Amino acid sequence: MRWIILMRAVTVGGTGKLSMRELRQALEKDGAEAVATYIQSGNLVLTLDEPDPRAVEARIGALVEAQFGIRPGVMAFAPEAIDAALDGTPGPEPDEPQHMYMLFFTGTPNADVAARLEEFCTQGEEVMLGATCLYLHAPDGLGRSKLGRKVEKALGCPATARNLNSVRKVREMV
């Protein structure tokens, strides 16, 4: 089965540093096939003979911990789930897709997450809850948004953010 893997807290340097080349090699040695990565932030596409996304997450998380000594959050999605998230993107095509964020989650979010976050929206920011992600339009970028640090608490479950450009690119890799 083909999987899209989104890892949390994987960075180019500092805490959570993880070489995508070394990760690809470790996954292939562990039985994954056709492993590809996109940029140095934990975006992977791979094939594993495993139909359960939670089992995929556990397997990859354990492998990363054993091989690299860190345990980032791992979220596994079938391509169809990413398609549904892309199809559900609110509003017209944004002028700057890099400022439309999709915060993916695998748990059950608080139903009132959008209402909880609306009070923190500034500078034209908007939030909307979808089936597998929270959409956040942040025209000034997520780093400058007051929402960034409040999203996960409001969701009530772990999440990882990708901008619309990145999500589209990872989906194309499938």
Order of helices and strands: EHEEHEHEHEEHEH
- Tell me the major beta sheet: 4 strands, antiparallel
The N- and C-terminal alpha carbons lie at a distance of 11 Å
- Average pLDDT number: 92
Summarize the structure.
This protein has 174 residues and is an alpha+beta fold. It is 32% helix and 24% strand. The longest helix has 16 residues, at 53-68.
Topology:
Layout: E1 2-7, H1 20-29, E2 33-38, E3 43-47, H2 53-68, E4 74-77, H3 79-87, E5 100-105, H4 113-118, E6 126-129, E7 133-137, H5 151-155, E8 159-163, H6 164-173
Antiparallel strand pairs: 1-3, 1-4, 2-3, 5-7, 5-8, 6-7
Helix pairs in contact: 3-6
Q: Describe it for me?
A:
With 174 residues, this protein is an alpha+beta fold. It is 32% helix and 24% strand. It has six helices and eight strands. The chain has helices spanning 20-29, 53-68, 79-87, 113-118, 151-155, 164-173, and strands spanning 2-7, 33-38, 43-47, 74-77, 100-105, 126-129, 133-137, 159-163. The strands form two sheets. The chain has a four-stranded antiparallel β-sheet with strand order 2-3-1-4, sandwiched between helices. A four-stranded antiparallel β-sheet has the order 6-7-5-8. Helix 3 runs antiparallel to helix 6. The longest helix has 16 residues, at 53-68. The radius of gyration is 16 Å and the shape is globular. The protein starts with a strand and ends with a helix.
